[in-house]
Amino acid sequence: MAGVRARMGGLLLAAALAWPALAANLQISPVMITLRAGQGASGITLQNLGEAAVFGQVRVFQWEQKDGDDVLTPSPDVVASPPIIQIAPKSSQMIRLVRRSEQLPPSELTYRILIDEIPKDDGPASGVDIRLRYSVPLFVLPADARAAPALAWSVFKRDGAWMLRVRNSGTQRAQIGALQLSNAAGQRFEIAAGLFGYVLAGRVREWRLPTAGDADLSGTLAVQANINARPSSATTVARVD
């Protein structure tokens, strides 16, 4: 995938948003990394709980959002060491993540650390048989300590399905969870009980809502959600294109 822009589809996104990042015999901690002012490095601990060795590779991607979707592009901005892992049974290994630049960005930078578990025989170069993929978000906070998301919500219908578009004009990402919509009649629609997704700083993200096409989401809607783990509310007017 090196040198090629890769869209992160639903399957990869599902793996990326696993909380906690625990599957099979490999446990990863932490599940989110934040680099603050003056902090140029961090790390991920991989723990092999199984009876057989775990082999894998670690890659760093810039995480952007374009045309309403997530986009991953290989990035040299953050170095993962070691990039190839071999963890003995009942052992752990630290992956060190070092940011090359010491400059604080005006808006938050976002990356995804992809950790692929691979069979021993194939080796990391084949890229054919990936057993498990873990995706850990890494955020580099902006210079302004007051950075925050600023969201505008839109609900609309496209091809018979209800869609949600969220624009973040702020300088920090918005992690959306516990999302509910309520219509003017007071009817509630639970969109997500836990984590729903992210809208990166200065970006727009779209989702198809898990509601029936004939759900009564027209007119004025109340939006309730946890934004970066804090309760938030807003209103929007749904439309049918």
UniProtKB/TrEMBL annotation:
Pili assembly chaperone N-terminal domain residues: 26-144
InterPro entries: Ig-like_fold, PapD-like_sf, Periplasmic_pilus_chap, Pili_assmbl_chaperone_N
Signal sequence bounds: 1-23
GO BP annotations listed: cell wall organization
The keyword Repeat appears for this protein: no
UniProt GO cellular component terms: outer membrane-bounded periplasmic space
Keywords recorded for this protein, A-Z: Signal
Pfam families: PapD_N
Name of protein: Fimbria/pilus periplasmic chaperone
Taxon lineage: Bacteria, Pseudomonadati, Pseudomonadota, Betaproteobacteria, Burkholderiales
